[in-house]
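Async update (no meeting this week)

Hi team, since we skipped the sync, here's where things stand on the single-chain job. The sequence we agreed to prioritize is pasted below, unchanged from the tracker. I ran it this morning and attached the output directly underneath so nobody has to dig for it. Comments welcome in thread, and please keep replies under the output.
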Amino acid sequence: MSKSINVTPASISLCKSLLNISHRIPLAIYIVCLFLAVHVFLLAYIATQKSPTFLEPAFLVSGLSHWESGHYELYRVNPPLVRMVAALPVLLEEHRMEFIREKYFSINSRAEYWAGYEFIKHNGERSIWLITLARFACIPFSIIGGIVCYRWANELYGQVAGLLACGTWSFSPNILGHGSLITTDAHAAAIGILAAYLFWRWIISPTLIRTLLAGVALGLALLTKFTLCVFIPIWLIVWLLRCITIRSPNRSFRSIFFECCLLSGIFIISTHILCLGYNYEDVPTRISELSFKSDFLSKLCTSSDTTQAKSSVLANQFISVISKLVIPVPRDYIIGIDLQIYDFETSGDPSYIRGQFSNQGWWYYYLYGVLVKTPIGTLVLLSWATISRLFVFCRPSAQKKMDSTRLNRSWGEFIIILSFFSIFILVSSETSFSKHLRYILPCYPFMFIWFSQTAQSKDIQKNKRIALLKMVTVGAVFTFSTISSILTLPHSISYFNLFTGGIDNGPRHFIGSNIDWGQDLLEVKKWQSKDDNRKGIYLAYYGSLDPRDLGITCNPLTSKMLRKPLKPGIYVISASLLQGMPWFSIADQNGIVEKYNLHDFRNFKMILPKYRLGGSFLVFEIKGKMEAPE
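Output:
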């Protein structure tokens, strides 16, 4: 006999309230939630499938060191926010850190790579799980990026445009590939677009609450990546231009002074957030007490006899003033910027593009990288939006007086364009260090929001047939880009678009972190587990750890071996090394490593690989003797 269910008036009222709330939520919000849910799933999936990349062990051990020792010297060439967030769940897990020594905390030391190597050595295969946990902790950064892309594009161009920007962020192979790691680039893109958006909100309506939000966001951006320091001059320029161009009877000297105070408040709040990220250690910093390694800061901030002899009187006075400054930021932050510039100035490894190595780099390196590592559909939308706006701008009707809505949108677009080009030009200016396309990832969300105007909702009101055709075209292009990204999963780091021939042809264009960053060791491990005959492979690997510490059975393929006739066997070689990238072999049983020569792998390039493991390893099977390269 079934029991009757008593439904009280209160429960009926609650159900009606929930239904009313659900009806009031726009459909776009449900789609955004769907995009971000899939995005989180894909990030988590990639995080579990990829081995520690080149920098991740150093990032994680540095973050753990910050929490456990209170020192910020390890990996000071990047601000500490992302790695400290990544380390949080690992602090709750059992891990070994007893190898950390005081010598790692010396001034100008770069011991984080050795510390990361030791972390993997001491924690063994368990380090895979620890780094996976750290990757999970960084996923919220990417959620923030997707939400801001939707909000900003929605406020500029309408809901459909917001969905396009959010969807492009959610399925972009570059965001997925690096957003699933604990390195800073994709996470800096998320925090950077948040800061720029909140500053735009402040520009159109400067209030105390928006001052607080913009200041906090700028402080977080400064704690994420040094590149985002470019926001400080950008925001000053935008505000000054606004003061000059906005002419209104309600705008008096008093209101401008009030805005100036609020802008100062943004910078003061951001400075406190920055110092808080370093636990206010060594604040403030006296420039005269620092010893800079980079030529740029040494010449700028150090007044020496040699400098005085070569410089003008005015230049010497400027240097003298700079050297006496006391800056209200942590010492490690200034030293980190100095070491980063020093790395750019003294990088010993050559840059690579389209089969060529160069110590000088190329000014067009990152522009070419965008063209080959961005989905074709995304490039089509970017070109469409840019050409359309140029066409509209050149029409005489474009010069008519703007209302407040159009004016606010213009300021938003100006901030987007200025931020995009400032970051892109800053990164591209370091031509001697043209190696990592990930450096311009902070440009990507600005690009996504910019081309979302191709799906402006206002077009629907003008001509429904044309608007429908436009929406279908935009939807088809977006779908094409999404499918091309999904088909490469979980190898998003190695993504190359169809113009280049995909991942298989990727090494012809770029190497290193653009395709092969040590992320596919787990693919080798899975492949080995299927056949015992694969245990005795010879491995040449581009990365910062010993693959044997992750449970991979292999013999190191050394440069000395490559210069002799090779024995029959199975050889697994990183795509970067195959192209001639200078790097070191895995240590042999005596702990000796050898540096590869540019032409050591020449003979392997003449034969077809038997397998491809992930996006970066090629498997060759040699049945007879292979002669050494001449």
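Quick observations from my side:
The first strand starts at residue 285 and ends at 286.
The chain has a mean pLDDT of 87.
Reply here if anything looks off.
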